[in-house]
Design a protein that fits this description.
The chain is of the alpha/beta class. The protein contains 4 helices and 18 strands. The protein has 2 domains: about 10-160, Hexapeptide repeat proteins (UDP N-Acetylglucosamine Acyltransferase, domain 1), CATH 2.160.10; about 160-200, no CATH class. About 20% of the residues lie in helices and about 25% in strands. The strands form 3 sheets. Strands 3-6-9-12-15-17-18 form a 7-stranded mixed beta sheet, with no helix packed on it. The longest helix is centred in the first third of the chain and has 12 residues, at about 1-15.
Length: about 200
């Protein structure tokens, strides 16, 4: 028991690194995670040892540990992909040229997304509202709203709901509700159709 507590404390005290990034007050980032040029909106959480570079995360997202989202790209259209020919600073000291190369694609994780442990998401991808990405997946293209994607490369497994329910949930934009409105609607959240019916009755 003491060993578990000691290991847990050590895991927590590592801290997290944020550069040009913001995390909403109602959200949480666990230790060991690094955020660069990234934003995490309300009521979302990120597990341990994640790396986000140029990422926008929406509200109510559930992001597990060891996720890597975004990142750098090497110039595959140049003669060489090596940074020794590029102008930006690198760990490699030698420079044979200083060609300007900037690739800062924004990766967008929309609202209510669940990403499993150990997922890699390519820079510039958009993961739609309510989507789920299975653990260990490699996401190289956009994921539609309410889709379940998994694999390497990740592909569509199925949709969470029928098309009419997906459309209704997207129209509702419930993630933008006030806290008061969310509390009133929350009893219906275990049944999407009942939730949508309640909107028609209000």
């Amino acid at each position: 028991m003491l060993g578990y507590i000691y290991a847990k404390v050590l895991k927590k005290v590592r801290g997290k690194a944020l550069l040009n990034s913001s995390v909403a007050r109602t959200s949480k980032i666990e230790s060991g995670s690094t955020l660069i040029n990234s934003v995490i909106a309300d009521h979302s959480f990120c597990g341990y040892d994640c790396t986000f570079i140029n990422v926008s995360v929406g509200k109510f997202c559930s992001l597990a540990s060891r996720i890597v989202i975004g990142g750098a790209r090497h110039p595959i259209e140049y003669v060489s992909t090596s940074p020794v020919f590029l102008s930006h600073k690198e760990s490699i000291r030698a420079k044979f040229a200083r060609h300007d190369y900037h690739w800062e694609a924004r990766t967008v994780i929309e609202h209510d997304v669940w990403i499993g442990e150990g997922v890699f998401v390519k820079g510039g991808v958009t993961i739609g509202v309510g989507a789920i990405v299975g653990m260990g997946s490699v996401v190289t293209r956009d994921v539609p709203a309410y889709a379940i994607f998994a694999g390497n490369p990740a592909r569509l497994i199925r949709y969470r709901f029928p098309e009419d329910v997906r459309a209704g949930l997207l129209r509702s934009e419930w993630w933008l509700y006030s806290d008061e409105k969310l509390r009133a609607a929350a009893p219906f959240f275990n049944d999407p159709r009942s939730f949508l019916d309640s909107l028609g009755a209000s």
